[in-house]
Amino acid sequence: MTLATINRRHVLTGTAALLAAASLPRTLSGAQRASREFRLVAAPARLSLVGAQHPATEVWCYDGRVPGPEIRVKQGERLRVLVENRLPDVTTIHWHGIRLPNAMDGVPHLTQEPIASGGQFTYEFECPDAGTYWYHPHQSSSEQIGRGLSGCLIVEERDAPRVDRDVTWLLSDWRLLKNASISGDFGNMHDVSHGGRIGNVVTVNGAVREAFEVRAGERVRLRLINAANARIFALEFEGHAPKIIALDGQPVEPHGPPQGRIVLGPAMRADLVIDMTGTPGQVFRVVDRFYGSLNYRLLNLVYSQEPPLRTEISGEPLRLPANRLAEPDLKSAERHRIVFGGGMMGQMSAAIMDGKRTDIRTLFQNGLAWALNGIAARGHLHAPILTLALNRSYVIELINDTAWHHPMHLHGHFFRVVGRNGQPTRFKEWQDTVLLAPRESAEIALVADNPGDWMFHCHILEHQQGGMMGVIRVA
Ligand code: C2O
Ligand code: CU
User: What is the pTM of this model?
Assistant: First the structure.
């Protein structure tokens, strides 16, 4: 067969395929593309988190594992997930960071009724942005996430930078008792009014790990997901020079982390590229240095004895293709301000609870310690703290008038972090969760292009429960 005949045949099949497509019923084309189907069962299970020398831990999880099964789709694919609730409590799933229709956002009483114990719910949506995401309940979040309900959701780029391995570490923080069972003191007022429920055992993909094995010369894309209730991480990869290529799933100009530490508040993600520049047999520590004197070794990078995969650092580019996000117009943007108040060592003496001005003692008795713009939200009260016009640009100034860190998450959108403490940021990074240090301020910019009622809250889950949440309406 000659080359010409092959080409001709290709052309013919192509045309035939086109004709066939044109005669298909309309529902099978375009928007009705087939979905990737998954099924998740939320139920209690017994798992070994801290190793064989300790008893197993009774957890709540998806499909009997922690983290839940990894959901991996290609950018633009539709995802359909049937959730079965076999927990002794109602639940929902929130697809953290995915820009999806409001009805699929998984917020109980706001976007759906919670899934009853023994009930089911089907989520279905498209994944418009490539990147690293995660899923978790939005019902009694502190307890349900704290007992183990979380999983990774990876949306693959159509055209990703070449790496030797693509690895995900979902970081969890557990508060365990001596017998390795989960401490049941969720939502206690000490945690609510201080730094949240910080645990005593950190796991990587559901287990305390001694080592992560690597090979000399390889290039690893490492997706970090902070699924902890409250713990902030500041990871240092000793002896290595990781580059951050994405934050909260969104590509960012590849750069080394400031002070060599990758700082991740709860719910935040970072995609790193790490060249394994050590030699066979070497061991390096990965250390978490966030809480000063409480530094600990997360695990060791252990080089196998295999010969190096390559001897020079791979010259492949690191830049990820940008997702299609609407660019906020800073000049015409309408400006708003959200002030955070409350917490221990704060100045808040009163806030609005259930529509009434309430003194701090009464707030406390009702489990509240925080406020956004003077409103301490509780239960299912979801009067919007801001109403934004569809497709308009906004700059929102976030002012942390408290003595604590807060990772603030907006549902349904990404925003650019354009300023911190009055200074422009270097990378104008897109994020869905921005970490504010005590007394810090930040300016975020976005186009309000997804209609609906969206949660805006602190992802330290005891803070959220203690009043640090509100609804931003896009109408
Ligand atoms: Cu990851 Cu409102 O949550
Ligand atoms: Cu907070």
Answer: 0.93
**Per-residue pLDDT at 160:** 86
Q: What pLDDT shows up at residue 165?
A: 97
pLDDT of the residue at 330: 97
Token pair 């929130």 in the structure block, residue: 94
The H or E element containing residue 36 is strand 35-47
* Bridge partners, 419 (sequence order): 424, 443
Tokens describing residue 462:
């005891």
354 CB-contact burial (10 Å; exposed 0-12 / middle 13-18 / buried 19+): exposed
User: What pLDDT sits at residue 30?
Assistant: 43
**Which helix (H) or strand (E) segment is 211 a member of?**
strand 211-214
DSSP structure string for 76-87 = T-EEEEEEEE-S
Q: How many CA atoms lie within 13 A of 462 on its CB side?
A: 25
Residues of the chain with pLDDT under 50: 1-31
b/e sequence 135-169, b meaning 16+ C-beta within 10 Å:
bbbbbbbbbbbbbbbbbbbbbebeeebebbeeebb
How remote is the C-alpha of 310 from its chain's centroid? 33
Ligand 1 neighbour 267 (Cβ under 6 A): yes
Q: Is 455 in the pocket of ligand 1 (CB under 6 A)?
A: yes
Report the nearest atom of ligand 1 relative to the CA of 455.
Answer: 2
